Amino acid sequence: MPHRILIIDDEERMRWVLCKALEQESYEAEAAGDGIEGLKMLDKHSIDLVLLDMRLPIMDGMEVLKRIKELYPSLPVIIITAYGSIEMAVAAVKAGATDYITKPFDIDELVIQIKKALDVHRLVDEVEFLRSELSQRYQDMLLSSKSPCMQEVYELVRRIADSDATVLLTGESGTGKEVIARTIHYSSRRADKPFVAINCAAVPDNLLESELFGYEKGAFTGAVARKAGRFEVADGGTVFLDEIGEMSMNMQAKLLRVLQERSFEHLGGNDVISVDVRIIAATNKDLQYAMKSGYFREDLYYRLSVIPINLPPLRERKEDIPDLALYFVNKFDKRKAIKGISKQAMDILRLYSWPGNIRELENAIERAVIICDTNAIQPAHLPISMQTPKKESSVLDIDIPDEGISMEALEMQLIKKALDKTGGNQTKAAKLLGITRSALIYRMQHGIT
């Protein structure tokens, strides 16, 4: 369907010339001789762009522009102005006009401006549509969980979404911390602004500062041009700092200043840049333990945890597994050939302990969808580790004396026994203890006094 363009100009010959030129470019053209007639035509027709002359009888171009922007805020308007009226055109752009062109002008130049304005408008509409879809998707999530513990989380999300308070999300890996962060963002008044995420563990410490705060040309080898950091890009929106527990003490101090002042300088720059952002942080670490061990700043912790939200592991919300599993089936089954999950397969999903939480469930269902050759997922389509129930771990029989027991000392004894049993192999020892190798090393480094 061709774009329809409205020309508002008091010169009849100019209207005729523009209409013919636009029709040759496969546009539909409507014309009005003054602002009042033009506003009536906007009400009557579906217009994609307006060409507006600044000098009009009855109602001048600036007043018409203001009325258009009040009634149709996103409608592109290109100003036509006489040579020598550039200041008026600039004022019009500040008032919401998309662009301007001065008389006399080349028709080809005008056509290029029109195409550019329509392309930008289309992209803006697409972005708004996608943001609306995302917002609805995350709003729907607030109603999807059956487990009481997640209902409590979602109720808190509803209550705090429109505040600017900093949020600290905690929980095991794979419990959906980023999903909750996005839910908060898309449920807030910042939903039409950027959501910018960065994994603090994935960026080397010597690069994290420039990633977060940006840099000036020449700030370091390879800095060939000025670059905005994540905080600058997110202005007006939300910054999500994932794996905040992996941030070095040096970077923690710099982040603390930004939290306090909402301003920073580019690496290699002196100008202070102020931003309006909400900060949501997440970690699977025990930050209070890290504080006591001297690896996380206490002042930063209390700045981040204005609103702490702990996400329960999937094994504690098993009533949500059927709905989550079916959601992932619909997500990955592009052919829509799979009608559901068999009772036997669903029973396996319910009984499994899910150490990798929702992320592990998602991966398991993706695999099942790929290899499924029936209209329902069967036990054989699930990973072997899920099909074969693990033997229950033996329970240690430990007597607790009246004077109490040191958990730290007990933990170190278990680590020592696991290392002795595996001949010092940290990977095997971590497996025996049911933790990751990195978690074992962390406990070895920070637990020994």
TrEMBL record:
The modification 4-aspartylphosphate is found at D53. InterPro entries: AAA+_ATPase, AAA_lid_NorR, CheY-like_superfamily, Homeodomain-like_sf, HTH_Fis, P-loop_NTPase, Sig_transdc_resp-reg_receiver, Sigma_54_int. It comes from Mahella australiensis (strain DSM 15567 / CIP 107919 / 50-1 BON). Keywords: ATP-binding, DNA-binding, Nucleotide-binding, Phosphoprotein, Transcription, Transcription regulation. The keyword Transcription regulation applies. May play the central regulatory role in sporulation. It may be an element of the effector pathway responsible for the activation of sporulation genes in response to nutritional stress. Spo0A may act in concert with spo0H (a sigma factor) to control the expression of some genes that are critical to the sporulation process. GO terms for biological process: phosphorelay signal transduction system; regulation of DNA-templated transcription. Residues 4-118 form the Response regulatory domain. One of its GO terms (molecular function) is ATP binding. Residues 143-370 form the Sigma-54 factor interaction domain. PROSITE patterns: RESPONSE_REGULATORY (PS50110), SIGMA54_INTERACT_1 (PS00675), SIGMA54_INTERACT_2 (PS00676), SIGMA54_INTERACT_3 (PS00688), SIGMA54_INTERACT_4 (PS50045). This is Stage 0 sporulation protein A homolog.
